[in-house]
Design goal:
126 residues, alpha+beta, Ribosomal Protein S5, domain 2, five-stranded mixed sheet, 23% strand
């Protein structure tokens, strides 16, 4: 069993991957229940489909933080990292698709004396 972590924006996905029959659970729920939109399910399964091992590994995912898209892409990154550890030959294809690259974009913090991070209060001359 392999334990890996993937991040995107403020989402964190911790996965446990072991050889099995292709069962994917997210936060102790089936992937279809946790990610009701098919697009997010496809995003999570992308690395498995790309290297042609869909249905050969059981994946248990724990996600936290961020939104639903960020969580799906964090899970994709963690699965990609685990596949690289199972077989180093997968690394080239996964790297080319950008599945091993961390998306560092996060919301900038609000500054004092400003309305938002960079937005100033409206200027009044009189």
């Amino acid at each position: 069993m392999i334990n890996k972590i993937g991040r995107r924006k403020t989402s964190v996905a911790r996965i446990y991957m072991a050889p099995g029959n292709g069962k994917i659970t997210v936060n102790d729920k089936a992937i279809e229940v946790y990610f009701p939109f098919e697009l997010h399910q496809i995003v999570v399964k992308q690395p498995l489909t790309l290297v042609g091992v869909e249905g050969t590994y059981d994946v248990q995912i724990n996600v936290d933080g961020g939104g639903i898209k960020g969580q799906a892409e964090a899970a994709r990154m963690a699965i990609s990292r685990a596949l690289c550890e199972f077989d180093e030959a997968h690394r080239g294809a996964l790297k080319k698709e950008g599945f091993l690259t961390r998306d560092p974009r996060m919301v900038e913090r609000k500054k004092p004396g400003r309305r938002k991070a960079r937005r100033r209060f409206q200027f009044s001359k009189r």
